[in-house]
UniProtKB/TrEMBL annotation:
<dbReference type="GO" id="GO:0050118">
    <property type="term" value="F:N-acetyldiaminopimelate deacetylase activity"/>
</dbReference>
<protein>
    <submittedName>
        <fullName>Hydrolase</fullName>
        <ecNumber>3.5.1.32</ecNumber>
    </submittedName>
</protein>
<feature type="binding site">
    <location>
        <position position="360"/>
    </location>
    <ligand>
        <name>Mn(2+)</name>
    </ligand>
</feature>
<dbReference type="InterPro" id="IPR011650">
    <property type="entry name" value="Peptidase_M20_dimer"/>
</dbReference>
<feature type="domain" description="Peptidase M20 dimerisation">
    <location>
        <begin position="186"/>
        <end position="275"/>
    </location>
</feature>
<keyword id="KW-0479">Metal-binding</keyword>
<keyword id="KW-0378">Hydrolase</keyword>
<dbReference type="GO" id="GO:0019877">
    <property type="term" value="P:diaminopimelate biosynthetic process"/>
</dbReference>
<feature type="binding site">
    <location>
        <position position="101"/>
    </location>
    <ligand>
        <name>Mn(2+)</name>
    </ligand>
</feature>
<dbReference type="InterPro" id="IPR036264">
    <property type="entry name" value="Bact_exopeptidase_dim_dom"/>
</dbReference>
<dbReference type="InterPro" id="IPR017439">
    <property type="entry name" value="Amidohydrolase"/>
</dbReference>
<keyword id="KW-0464">Manganese</keyword>
<dbReference type="GO" id="GO:0047980">
    <property type="term" value="F:hippurate hydrolase activity"/>
</dbReference>
<dbReference type="InterPro" id="IPR002933">
    <property type="entry name" value="Peptidase_M20"/>
</dbReference>
<feature type="binding site">
    <location>
        <position position="136"/>
    </location>
    <ligand>
        <name>Mn(2+)</name>
    </ligand>
</feature>
<dbReference type="Pfam" id="PF01546">
    <property type="entry name" value="Peptidase_M20"/>
</dbReference>
<dbReference type="Pfam" id="PF07687">
    <property type="entry name" value="M20_dimer"/>
</dbReference>
Length: 394
């Protein structure tokens, strides 16, 4: 069986929702229109609407039967600060903001599933539809958890889904254990002493020290982390100087560090502090680092992965379910929800190269052909997990 026929019938309407959301992208904690859109749709389906968690977050609650079990399904709603390069009719109307990560599609698929489940109620228990703001950089998932998401809406498990360019359209992928990396950011300030470019010996050259630091940071992963563990340290900004003939006082470096295991994350941070101190001593300058742990890794639990695979298999067939996949060094704030509850985060293929641009690319677009597949996965997961006749205790 491919998708659920009633959801196929919603395909045109879901496509219209998705393109409307795509045309009106909003970034972290400013998803006011998107939040209104979601709340209005949910209440028109007969789903109970709760607003205000993490500012623009929306939780829809749907009950059926008398079962006391509950699960959470989560979609993210935010866009990115990207100038859209696409020229199609549904391109961004908010210049400088773009749904370049497909969260417009995620929101739409969860709305489609909510509509179908509200109409059919072929399950026994409670589903909380979690529409989360600010996935990109700002950790809206963490804020929802801190605002009491799971105290207000208790669930035994929580599930997430992200579209994935590079996986054939409509295939689904999941695996137990670590699937995505931790995400940290750092800012390093190197303070030397400015000097005439022709007389550098009168100063302390912060640019030379900064260059040495960038090079030395590369040895942390290659020499300090076990070759069978994964980590990455990327310096993404190097700011210094204003003119041709002056050595500046100060250099600022910024970047991101990632790892698949918490112990490797800690090792990388410690090694970075040592390298900063060493470069400061070697060059006679001051080096200070601000290191901020942003997102923990995505860690799927085996039982919930098995539930996800069962639902995927029913929707697309076992031959299209991918379980032999590699983790990625990308990160996701759904990890904060997975730290609180067991669950599974899955990838839905958005198309291979030539069909889909990569995430965060200005030419990216969510593939509307996969909307019914994602929505059917959500519905099937609910109907199987909270099946009528299942025992009331998990
Ligand atoms: Zn993204
Ligand atoms: Zn994303």
């Amino acid at each position: 069986m491919p998708t659920i026929p009633r959801i196929d019938a919603l395909h045109a309407e879901m496509t219209a929702w998705r393109r409307d959301l795509h045309a009106h992208p909003e970034t972290a904690f400013e998803e006011a229109r998107t939040s209104d859109f979601v709340a209005e749709k949910l209440s028109s389906f007969g789903v109970e609407v709760h607003r205000g968690l993490a500012k623009t977050g929306v939780v829809g609650t749907l009950r059926a039967g008398s079962g006391r079990r509950a699960i959470g399904l989560r979609a993210d709603m935010d866009a990115l600060h990207v100038h859209e390069a696409n020229t199609f009719a549904h391109r961004s109307r908010n210049e400088g903001r773009m749904h370049a990560c497909g969260h417009d599609g995620h929101t739409t698929m969860l709305l489609g599933a909510a509509r179908h489940l509200a109409e059919t109620r072929a399950f026994d228990g409670t589903v909380h539809f979690i529409f989360q703001p600010a996935e990109e950089n700002e950790g809206g998932g963490r804020v929802m958890v801190e605002d009491g998401l799971f105290e207000k809406f208790p669930v035994e498990a929580v599930f997430g889904m992200h579209n994935w360019p590079g996986i054939p359209a409509g295939q689904l992928a999941v695996m137990p254990g670590i699937m995505m990396a931790s995400f940290d950011i750092f800012e390093i300030k190197i303070t030397g002493r400015g000097a005439h470019a022709g007389m550098p010996h009168h100063g302390v050259d912060a640019i030379v020290a900064g260059s040495a630091l960038v090079q030395a940071l590369q040895a942390i992963v290659s020499r300090g982390v076990s070759p069978v563990d994964a980590a990455v340290v990327s310096v993404t900004q190097f700011h210094a100087g204003d003119t041709w003939n002056v050595l500046p006082d100060e250099v600022t470096l910024r970047g991101s560090a990632r790892a698949l295991k918490p112990e490797v994350q800690a090792l990388v941070e410690g090694a970075m502090r040592r390298v900063c101190d060493g470069v400061a001593a070697a060059h006679g300058c001051q080096v200070t680092m601000r290191y901020e742990r942003r997102y923990p890794p995505i860690i799927n639990t085996p039982k919930e992965v098995a539930m996800a695979i069962a639902a995927m298999t029913q929707v697309i067939g076992a031959d299209k379910v991918l379980t032999d996949i590699q983790p990625t060094m990308g990160a996701e704030d759904f990890a904060f929800m997975l730290r609180e509850r067991p669950g599974a985060y899955v990838w839905l293929g958005n198309g291979v190269a030539g069909e889909s641009r990569m995430l965060h690319n200005p030419g990216y677009d969510f593939n509307d052909e996969i909307l019914p597949i994602g929505a059917s996965y959500w519905v099937t997961l609910v109907e199987q997990t909270l099946s009528k006749g299942a025992l009331d205790s998990p």
